[in-house]
Design goal:
Chain A has 124 residues and is an alpha+beta fold. Chain A has five helices and five strands. Chain B has helices at 32-39, 99-106, 125-134, 153-160, 176-199; strands at 18-26, 45-51, 70-82, 85-91, 111-116, 138-143, 168-171. The chains are: A alpha+beta (124), B alpha/beta (206). Chains A and B meet through strand 2, helix 3, helix 4 and helix 5 of A and strand 1, strand 2, strand 3, strand 4 and helix 5 of B.
Chain lengths: 124, 206
């Protein structure tokens, strides 16, 4: 029998890896700016019937009722970050989730936050 | 769309936590994941990034139609400082060739703890190089393995040709208290650099 990987052949795209089946073959996210520690929270008052979502999308919507980082979602779902970003992009488009603190490039936390981190570590 | 509400949702919405990220870098087998595990409140989690054409080659893809896929694993841990403030620790991939992942990891990071093993000091050169070039704050933490010759921090600094401002600390990554002290030393270093930058008028205080 053909190994599953070999069945996902696409002439234009080359061999596709299985996780991308969850994304309908898409390998690029519109939201590549989603940091690994960007915090995802499920939106309130969702108007979409979540039962129509795929299992991974639904997992994210359910899990993120408690805020979760992108990295934790990827780890919990056991799928690569690139795939998770695509799934999150879908959910963002549908207004099912919100992202906290988008792409904090070059923006350091304030001194107050850093001091809080030091105190928190000391108290561990 | 119901999601396009113009007025902000009042207090009922869950508080969006602030996340802070510190990288743990260093050569293969130096104890990155051990350090993350020693201080993390959770067993280190593993996340993977799949590199297809993105991380390989530069512009010209002709002749490389046969795309290869490589999976890079990153271990990370979490420390809840308080409700609404979470510290994430990410171990960098051991293989230095995955610079693309390093860039992504470094994005938005406070900086890094570079772990060094005095028996294989050269292994941490690429990490030191990387953070120096990126201008990201880092400290060097020397993991004092059993049986490794003990060096003074100053000797390690000289061997690595570090800027005098970069702290060098000795540690045992298996020990939670020691790991905590490493992280505290790092955040204090960031705090001091911020203070110095502000004194020179480089960064507006937030």
């Amino acid at each position: 029998m053909t190994p599953p990987e070999d069945r996902w052949l696409d002439e234009a795209a080359g061999p596709l890896v299985r996780p991308y089946a969850m994304t309908g073959g898409r390998t690029r996210s519109k939201r590549t700016d989603l940091d690994m520690i960007a915090i995802i929270v499920t939106a309130e008052n969702i108007s979409v019937d979540t039962r129509r979502l795929g299992p991974e999308h639904r997992f994210i919507v359910d899990a993120c009722r408690q805020p979760l980082s992108v990295a934790e979602i990827a780890s919990d779902l056991d799928i690569p970050l690139g795939v998770v970003r695509i799934l999150l992009g879908d959910l963002l488009e549908q207004g099912l989730i919100t992202v906290g603190r988008p792409a904090p490039v070059s923006q350091l936390p304030s001194e107050r936050v850093l001091k809080e981190v030091i105190n928190g570590l000391q108290a561990l | 769309m119901a999601s396009k509400r113009s007025d902000p949702v009042p207090s009922a919405a869950p508080v969006m936590p602030l996340a802070v990220k510190i990288l743990v870098a260093g050569g293969f087998g130096v104890g990155k994941t051990t350090l993350v595990g020693a201080v993390s409140e959770i067993r280190p989690l593993r996340t993977e990034e799949m590199l297809t054409d993105r991380g390989v080659g530069v512009d010209d893809t002709s002749g490389v139609e046969q795309k290869t896929t490589t999976t890079v694993a990153m271990d990370f841990g979490r420390i809840t400082i308080r409700d609404g403030l979470v510290l994430y620790l990410f171990g960098t991939p051991g293989q230095d060739r995955f610079w693309f992942v390093w860039d992504e990891l470094a994005m938005g990071a406070l900086g890094a703890v570079v772990l060094a093993d005095t028996r294989r000091l050269a292994d941490c050169f690429p990490s030191v190089d990387y953070f120096e070039r990126r201008g990201l704050p880092f400290i060097v933490a020397v993991n004092c393995f059993d049986g490794a010759a003990q060096y003074r921090a100053e000797e390690v600094r000289q061997a690595l040709d570090l800027d005098p401002g970069v702290p060098v600390v000795l540690c045992d990554v298996r020990d939670r208290e020691s790991g905590k002290q490493v992280l505290i030393a790092f955040v204090e270093h960031v705090l001091n650099s911020l203070g110095r930058q502000r004194d020179r008028g480089l960064t507006p205080a937030r």
